[in-house]
Amino acid sequence: MEIWINPACSKCRSAISLLDAEGAEYTVRRYLEDVPSEDEIRAVLDRLNLEPWDITRTQEAVAKELGLKDWPREEGSRDRWIAALAEHPKLIQRPIITADDGTALVARSEEAVREALTHNKG
């Protein structure tokens, strides 16, 4: 299991605390420093079963600078969104947990972290 975090994020710290409390084995990826490639973002989106705009933090200053709220949310714009996430990783929603069974979750709640743990057993 891997968790993409920003250490400054309270939701990320809460998720890590819960994983630790449950004795989970996981790898931390500080995605602002170890920036995911476009291919890695595509793979995580496939595992999440989401589109890039679904995991974009549209309230970030860079999102406003790029005018993301006006970008089309359609298949033809998918690569543009993914490129923006790879170029500006601060736009990626966090934390994201990728479980060993191939699933992934945006783990912004305790329930989501617990669900990720159920996907990581066995």
TrEMBL record:
**The keyword Zinc appears for this protein:** no
What GO terms are given for molecular function?
arsenate reductase (glutaredoxin) activity
Pfam families assigned to the protein according to its UniProt record, in alphabetical order: ArsC
Task: Give the record's keywords alphabetically.
Answer: Oxidoreductase
Gene3D superfamilies recorded = Glutaredoxin
Recorded superkingdom: Bacteria
Give the protein family. Answer: Belongs to the ArsC family.
Identify this protein by name.
Arsenate reductase
Species annotation: Streptomyces roseochromogenus subsp. oscitans DS 12.976
